Amino acid sequence: QAYLSYSNIAALTHLAAKPGWEITRMLDDIKIWTREEGEALSFKVEMQVKIPSHLAFSLLSDFTLRQQWDRHFLTCEVLQVVSEEEKIYYVTSSPTRGHESRDFVILVSQRQPCKPCEPYTVAVRSVTLSAVPPSPKFSRSEVLCAGFQIHSSTSGSCTVCYFNQMTSGVMPYLAANLDGSSKSIEDTALECIKFLE
Asked: Secretion signal: which residues (predicted)?
């Protein structure tokens, strides 16, 4: 478990630091970036939020609150509290056009910054739990690497960056969005800002 949680944080930090991010859309408080590498497509959503970074961190690290702003989350329950900084959740998501409902078993690791210049981190990856085998009602999907980095801007505002490295399992949610026919990422980001503020 210690290795999994370390690699969870490390994978997100590594993804965030990679070069080659291309900006695909800019709005007032939101920027959307994408990065392609082989079969993997990653995206980053940068949001300017008018609350202190520690508050954004506490709201975003509790995944049971996520249904309040992310319509892709149908249900979310805590399966296991591994430690103060790690929890395992079971998430179900609503079906998209032509695709069945999906479910995920995810480890969420949270870290406070060690130095003032470092961000707050909430990292997410799929794990396997024998207590939660795949169900015939859902298509079990995998999160490779996702999560938030929260950087302090001023005492009352922060920059929240959401990252997700896509697999084919999550692609249906994004395919429509990236060709511009739907604004699912943008809408979710706006809901997230509204929820935080």
From this structure: none
pLDDT band per the 50, 70, 90 thresholds, residue 181: very low
pLDDT for 10-59, tens place per residue? 999 999 999 999 998 888 899 999 888 877 788 899 999 999 999 999 99
Cβ-contact 1, 88 below 8 angstroms:
no
Comparing CA positions, the residue from 137, 133, 57 lying closest to residue 90 is 133
Measured between alpha carbons, how far is 108 from 83 in angstroms, rounded to an integer?
Answer: 11
- Take residue 173 and report the two structure tokens written for it: 């949610």
Distance CA(54)–CA(60), nearest Å, equals 10
Residue ranges of domains in the chain:
1-196
Residues 6+ apart with CB under 8 A from 111: 9, 85, 120, 121, 123
Using CA atoms, how far apart are residues 24 and 45, in angstroms rounded to an integer? Answer: 10
Distances (CA, A) of 96 to 32, 103, 173, 174: 22, 13, 7, 10
